[in-house]
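Response to reviewer comment R2.3. The reviewers asked that we include at least one raw input/output pair. We reproduce the pair for Tryptophan 2-monooxygenase here without editing.
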Amino acid sequence: MRGASGWDRLQKLIKPKESPDHVHDVIVIGAGLAGLTAAHALKDLSTLVLEQEAFAGGRVMTRSQQGVAYDLGAVLAYDAAALPIRFQPSRLRHDEGLLGCYFEGKVHFGDSVMACLARFGLSGQEQELLRAFSEDPARDVGRLPERLRRLLGAFFQDIHFGDIQQYLPRRQADALTRFLTLHYQEGNGELVRHLQESLGDKLRLSAQVSRVRQEERRVCVEYSQGGVQHKAHARAVLLTTPGPVALGLLEQVDEPSRSFLGSLRYSQGVVVALGISNAVLERFSYLVAPDLPLSTLLRQPTDRPELQVLLAYYADDKAARLEGLSDEEIVRRTVETLAQLRIGDVGPGHVSFSQVQRWPRVGAIISPDSYGQWDERVTRPSHRVFLAGDYVHMDSANPMPYGMVSAASSGFKQASEIRRFLEDERLAATYSSRFLTDVSIYELMNDRPVFRWQTQEGSIAHYGLLLQASPNEELRRYLLNSAREGLWEYQPRFGVTPEDSALVMEGLLDTGVPLETLLPSAQRMVELFHDDSLGAFRSLSPIRRQIESCAQGRAPYWQDPSLDATAQVGYLLHRIAPERFASQVEGCVRYLCQTQSPKGFWQGQWFPSTLVTTYYAVRLLSLAGGTAAAAHLSRARDYILGLQRAEGSWSGSVIDTSVAVLSLRALGLQTPARERALQWIQSRKGAHGAWSGEPVLYYWMEAEDGRRLLYHCHDKGQITSAWATLALRS
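Raw output as returned:
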């Protein structure tokens, strides 16, 4: 046992048995081309691939007899340059020859579909209808005469196996396309072998999956292998089976996946491979036969002059007529049909080998019901489950969810999505445990508050402020993925509020998240939290009992209109879509003007200082208040300037001084007061490059036992540093 290969064998021998509690990163169900490509792309992770057959490849099935490779599934050569992976296939053969059509007792050949059809003596009206069909984007073969429908339907089935009338108009034009019958010397299966070899013992064959069940933080996959029942767990599952199989395996299927999978219909097919020796045949590439039992006949010359391979295809209804027949009987009938085609002297004595392959599902019918209104969300039937396969690789501009490149591309794309999902989960675990505040909890007694205990809070909303101050792609992704129905909360399971959502959305907006991405969130805030009668926003939604994601409130005062929410959200609405939300912004401005203190400040219900709420109010009124807000802004200016200390700070607080600086900027004031403030902020910066934390939030709540508890939240330093950074950058 020497060298790398010996070490590999030794590792397998001493590898400990996998624990039943082991959780894989990914389980891939199905080892067709989509599944193999995905698993290949994810092979650096803990990946398990389960395939029910004793071989991999799915509908890519290459077999070999007498030294000749032939394909019983996907037969046309794929474009290796279009694959999402690097692979150098074997020599590409171009099987020259005309295409043909056997119809009304005659076989005619041509170098194009139109040339072939012309030989059947089409009438002038038929020619005009055919021309109109070829040029009309909304074509419908059902509007053509029966004779043309049969001819076009036959040519259509040289690539698709279903009835042409069931397909999208865009795809019906495939009937007029001549497909090049290129094939690789070693067949399409060499790509399967390459991918399979890269997976090693990650692939388990003859593993029949029976159920895919989503659990709290993982997915359970139940399967049998060799008569033994197994359970495997993973953080994500990729299903690459045909759509109806996926629907049957999944316990949970969300919309729109459920409707899409339920709408899918598949065509069936039978392929017969014949090795023809010492026979002289017409030089054709393929021919179609609407009047005969078979659908399409493809000819492949080989490197041996005396041997050719004929592949006979039975599509859809013609395949159904072969059910119950033995392989030998199907081969006999196929050889009899060859004699009717008059393509050469072909009889049973010329057949040196044969093989039959039955496909219950060749490909999804690309119908208007399934693909007319494509929604990419169908590829995610539940939180931890993804779908891949050619049938979900959809380009709306050219809808062709079929074929090897589509399958491989789908697998590769979903592998990237899964990798991103797993990384986002890691980020969520990292950030959600990094609380930004230390919280002291007091019980409010009759005469004084009594300290009870301490905890930590704040792992979502205030990160929006940190993102705004110091753009960070990881943090941005964490926040985007922390949304609950498009809005955000203070920390997990706290429930969404407009104040918390606004903190996050402002950070996302300032770091390049497109307006159109945030527009649904803005609309959702209006729907849930805006009070049309007051023009204000409330911290709690009036319909919160009906919506699980909403904060439910912990004390009666939480239900009051919120100055902070009104100022913060009004500002965001004006930035995101000022015309769309003009009435709401106008209401916010009006409410702020009505609620300003005579001294010039605004007092919120969450922040220890009036200056934070005043900053939010000044910012909105300066942006959208117009002349009606001028007097209010003047009073706010006098209030802010009147509080500055001689050394340049506001109340000796970095946060208060920072928001005062930002308020002066919003007011358009470049004063010595602002310069003194900036110098003071800079002077408070610690040796470690950050600022010490300060109180940032307080709220009280009523416990179930009737006690009133005050939560006093003190920043650990990052929130204060973010405010200081924003002020210095202003």
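The chain has 24 helices and 25 strands. Residues 1-16 have pLDDT under 50 and may be disordered. Further pairs are available on request from the corresponding author.
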